[in-house]
Amino acid sequence: MDVLRHQLRLCLVTDPGLCRAIGVVETVRQAVAGGVTMVQLRDKHATTSARIATALALKSVLAGTGVPLIINDDIEAATAADADGAHIGQGDMPPSEARALLGPDKILGLSCQTPQTVRAADVTVVDYLGLGPVFGTATKTDHEQPVGFDGLTHLVSLASLPTVAIGGLKARHQSDVHTSGADGMAVVSAICGQPDVKSAAQAFANMGPAT
């Protein structure tokens, strides 16, 4: 679990639109060079076959780095590409079903927005919780009401699993994430589409770890 907590420190969630200039794969390569510790492939509009192809390309980039690849909302793609795990939301398949498909050794993350969903998370099935959104964000327009840092702190206090803060976070928020007790933060636009992706990732590392 300590390894997973470290991996959650800075999670890059990909956005193909924001990454258009250099592509998702090159964005990930530069971001990992800058200190990203986990990569979540998210592409809401891609087919499963396209996600598998991207995941395989990302696995090549991540080989030997120790940075895990997580697939968002597509268990089929995660299993077909033999990714390190998957991340699902409250409206996706039940975590128990996702676990059965993934197998016991893969990482499974679950998004939680309320105290009720945090308390309901099965620690024998799920490995970590994505908590938020802390702020509203244009990269995910169907998000729940933002919880702010007070709400994040409360959700973390209820969690029995490693946690990663999500939703509109930037490098300047790292101390607040640390204060909340979360193990790390997931970011999209703070790295994807930035003029210098590696430097954008390094900005988080330069502010010190979230844990």
UniProtKB/TrEMBL annotation:
GO terms for molecular function: magnesium ion binding; thiamine-phosphate diphosphorylase activity. Pathway: Cofactor biosynthesis; thiamine diphosphate biosynthesis; thiamine phosphate from 4-amino-2-methyl-5-diphosphomethylpyrimidine and 4-methyl-5-(2-phosphoethyl)-thiazole: step 1/1. Keywords: Magnesium, Metal-binding, Thiamine biosynthesis, Transferase. One of its GO terms (biological process) is thiamine diphosphate biosynthetic process. Its cofactor is Mg(2+). One of its GO terms (cellular component) is cytoplasm. It catalyses: 4-methyl-5-(2-phosphooxyethyl)-thiazole + 4-amino-2-methyl-5-(diphosphooxymethyl)pyrimidine + H(+) = thiamine phosphate + diphosphate; 2-(2-carboxy-4-methylthiazol-5-yl)ethyl phosphate + 4-amino-2-methyl-5-(diphosphooxymethyl)pyrimidine + 2 H(+) = thiamine phosphate + CO2 + diphosphate; 2-[(2R,5Z)-2-carboxy-4-methylthiazol-5(2H)-ylidene]ethyl phosphate + 4-amino-2-methyl-5-(diphosphooxymethyl)pyrimidine + 2 H(+) = thiamine phosphate + CO2 + diphosphate. InterPro entries: Aldolase_TIM, ThiamineP_synth_sf, ThiamineP_synth_TenI, TMP_synthase. Its EC number is 2.5.1.3. Signal peptide: none annotated. Mg(2+) binds at residues 73, 92. Transmembrane segments: none annotated. Binds 1 Mg(2+) ion per subunit. 4-amino-2-methyl-5-(diphosphooxymethyl)pyrimidine binds at residues 40-44, 72, 111, 140. Residues 10-191 form the Thiamine phosphate synthase/TenI domain. It comes from the Bacteria. Pfam families: TMP-TENI. Belongs to the thiamine-phosphate synthase family. Condenses 4-methyl-5-(beta-hydroxyethyl)thiazole monophosphate (THZ-P) and 2-methyl-4-amino-5-hydroxymethyl pyrimidine pyrophosphate (HMP-PP) to form thiamine monophosphate (TMP). This is Thiamine-phosphate synthase. It comes from Sedimentitalea nanhaiensis.
